[in-house]
Amino acid sequence: MRVFHADLHIHTCLSPCAEREMSPSNIVRLAKERGLDVIAICDHNSAENVPATRRAAEKVELTVIGGMEITTQEEVHMLGLFADDSSLTAVQNLIYSHLPGENEPEIFGEQLVMDDEDRVINRHRRLLIGATDLTLDEVVQTIHNFGGIAIASHVDRPSFSVTSQLGFIPDGLGLDGIEVSSWSALPLPGDLPVICSSDAHRSGEIGTRCTRFLMKAPTLPEIGMALKRINDRRILTGQ
Amino acid sequence: MNLREIVDQLQLEVKANEGSLSNEVTGGYASDLLSDVIANAQEGDLWVTLQTHQNTVAVASMKGLAGIVLVNGREPEADTLKKAKEESIPLLMSALPSFELIGRLYKLGVPGMRT
């Protein structure tokens, strides 16, 4: 067992609100520079830059977990992390079918899909910044149905968090954990596992906040065990 | 003014707790952020929102609100209905959008602020 540093909430240039420098190879380079072992790519309602980021990390020791930051009907942001790409793609396609609207790049920003050498291969047309028509419960259930891990985004923030939108975390939601923007948000009410991540939209933010996991290997199943404190795996809370 | 009069005048659809329409409405509050309602709504307010999640009922109960009106014809989720019945919170629905409904409530004499 050893300590792994994970930043499990990083946007790429596919998110309209992220800067263009959040390209696959830049993210990988900066994550390594800043001592991270694991990153998760979580763009708004899409996972199309996950494959390129994973390819960009092939020659270095860095685990790239595929994920999404899904916007529920209540405008709650929910991270879904997936161990296998077919599940991730299936959830992405389901989310697309519940996501109305077209992006207007000059208003909301560009939504760039890149290859692993940061060449633009597509400009995504859906309104990724919008909300799905799926309820919070439906989103958590969907993540779980596809074997994913559901973590409520930045619960310490005054917008788009389960706490800002719904006042408090509903009983029986079945979350695997909650994310804070800063360890100084602790202690929080309730007993859900807490992670801290950067929610990086700019390259300077990558790895500025992260979670230390004590576990056997830098993989999502190990992270799942650490969240549940199985076989001595656990989160080391704090900086 | 009680809820019954408001329901009749504005043709609201009663989704739950017809029996609690004698609740006195002393003001109104409009917000879709439940954290904001927790912070700023006052006891006796009729709450206008488009959120249909069951937490609305818990918040209304905690704050002693007179009732909840869902706007734009939004239907409450099944567990929201169930919870509203358990907590005896009147759950109403209007086909009107928020701005229009709030304007009509104000015209009926429901104040946004107590002086």
What can you see in these coordinates?
The complex is a heterodimer of chains A (239) and B (115). Chain A is α/β, with parallel strands linked by helices and 239 residues long. Chain A is 24% helix and 24% strand. Chain A starts with a strand and ends with a strand. In chain B, helix 3 (55-63) links the parallel strand 3 (45-49) and strand 4 (67-70). Chain B has one domain (3-108): Udp-n-acetylmuramoylalanyl-d-glutamate--2,6- Diaminopimelate Ligase, Chain: A, domain 1 (3-Layer(aba) Sandwich), CATH 3.40.1390.20. Chain B has a 5-stranded mixed beta sheet, with helices on both faces. The A-B interface holds A 73-74, 135-137, 158, 163-168, 170 and B 32-35, 37-38, 51-55, 58-59, 77.
Overall form of chain A: globular
Question: Can you write the helix and strand succession of chain A as a string?
Answer: EHEHEEHHEEHEHEEEHE
CATH architecture of chain A: Alpha-Beta Barrel
Number of helices, where a helix is a run of at least 4 consecutive DSSP H or I residues of chain B: 5
Indicate how many domains the architecture of chain A comprises: 1
Broad structural category of chain A: alpha/beta
Low-confidence region ranges of chain B:
none
Rg of chain A, rounded, reads 16 Å
CATH class of chain A: Alpha Beta
Keywords:
heterodimer; A: 239 residues; alpha/beta; nine-stranded mixed β-sheet; two-stranded antiparallel sheet; 7 helices; 24% strand; globular; B: 115 residues; 17% strand
